Amino acid sequence: MRASHGPACAEVIRARRPAAPRIGLVLGSGLGAFADAVENAVRFPYAELPGFPVSGVSGHAGEMVLGTVAGVEVAVMAGRAHYYEHGDAGVMRTPIETFQALGCTAVILTNAAGGLRPEVPPGELMLITDHINVSGSNPLFGEPTDRRFVGLTEAYDPHLAALFHAAAAEEGLALATGTYMWFSGPSFETPAEIRAARILGADAVGMSTVPEVILARFFGLRVAAVSTITNFAAGLGDGELSHEDVKAVGPLGAAKLMRILPRVIAAYGSP
Ligand code: HPA
Fold it and tell me: What pLDDT was estimated at residue 245?
């Protein structure tokens, strides 16, 4: 199991930004602009944080930004590492532990995903209400304590979900809900895998987020996760899938999330 350095990272961060964040955010492809919207920002390149995995995926920056959004203290990760980069599903353990060590009580995870439902086309947002892990891996492999037996029956926090629905309604934006199926990547799925995913109950598929959800529950954090549907999943749209297409559509969802997230953060952060 990879060593976990959350408390050490929290120390580095507190030395330059003593205020404790309430919420941690992990920004997926195309959402980097949200990190630029953080006010009073203090930036920590991942290289300055012990044990933080540096991601080489284009479209994913690599810094932790501490500051305020809607007057609420937040910690924002612009860029995440993926299982498929390292072959280690626990690669995000130190960052998620850092959120907890800093004092966050919740995390909001965002990602890009392939859509399986015709009525939720590319550019739409889907709030994740449950997940299916078909990767065969788990970020808690090797965890020696009984704490590894993390319950996931209520992994996705109903209170945070309600805040997302309220925020989307206030902004006049549609917000679908559904089940996200985690594939290891980095190759995209096959059409047969997507047919199987549909039968098994998936509404969207992707290569991230589920390890972070499991880690966040392990560390006692409340979780919300939202996908930008960037493409119809393999075999459901036209032609071959590409990372270029994912990056091209990501900003559509990002523009919507830029309107929703400050409302969610304000509502969660208000006493
Ligand atoms: N599959 C897996 N991951 C993804 C997809 C997809 O179709 N789109 C964006 N991320």
Answer: 85
